[in-house]
Write a structure and sequence with these properties.
Largest sheet: none
Number of strands: 0
Structural class: mainly alpha
Number of helices: 4
Radius of gyration: 17 Å
Oligomer: single chain
Length: 102
């Protein structure tokens, strides 16, 4: 992308009840879970005929990793957003959770 952004977010579509996506998912049998704990944007509860939810999650994770684990970008993010030693410690303390999120 020509924007060269420091931060990006990619999320899975969630077919919330009352939406057209939900109605289509129910009508076509695309829903994979009725466990509301899984109905969040980092997971997929939809399996389309030619695109499984697991593939969407893998693609999301891959896009995040390609973006954030690029050495040049990681260094630039640190340079742009870590201005004091306390910022570096805070960033390091959040890193394990961030990597799990990806």
């Amino acid at each position: 992308s020509s924007l060269d952004l420091d931060f990006v977010q990619y999320y899975c579509a969630i077919p919330y009840p009352g939406t057209r996506l939900y109605d289509e998912a129910v009508a076509h049998g695309w829903l994979t879970s009725d466990d509301w704990r899984r109905w969040e944007h980092n997971q997929s509860v939809l399996d389309y005929p030619h695109l499984r939810g697991a593939e969407v999650v893998r693609a999301r994770r891959g896009a995040l990793r390609r973006h954030y684990l690029s050495p040049g970008r990681a260094l630039r993010i640190l340079a742009n957003h870590v201005k004091r030693p306390a910022d570096a410690l805070a960033t390091l303390s959040r890193l394990p959770g961030f990597l799990r999120w990806m």
